[in-house]
What does this fold into?
Amino acid sequence: MASLRKIIHLRSGRIEFDEFCALGFVKSNINFDEDDRVSFLNACLDHYNGHPFGYISVREHSYSINPMIYTELNKVESLKAFAIVSDTSIGRGNAEIEGKFYKKPFGIFGAKEDAIQWMNEEILKAIEKE
It folds into this structure.
């Protein structure tokens, strides 16, 4: 899908916004902490303004993340699904651990395009239920 995306830059990375999902790219060697989670989440909430959306974490670089942040993300009503894109087996293994903390649809992908397709389907299902 060739479309123009809105892009915002934050201290620890950037977010690209599609119609139904935000793609997050975290800078290399970041310790993604609670402050980063809040800034990324607030940017998404501002952009989607109460409408259902999904978040795709595109893991281009190595960085650390506390999987407990997912306990807070579970409480965000408009966040309907979460996906991780990683092209390494270690990254996908870490994503499997993270997925145990997230209670909504959660996907792990090797390619960004596959994650976007899955996410669009998940968000459309969520919209149909509303």
Summary: Residues 37 and 102 are 14 Å apart (CA to CA). The mean pLDDT is 91. The longest helix spans residues 112-129.
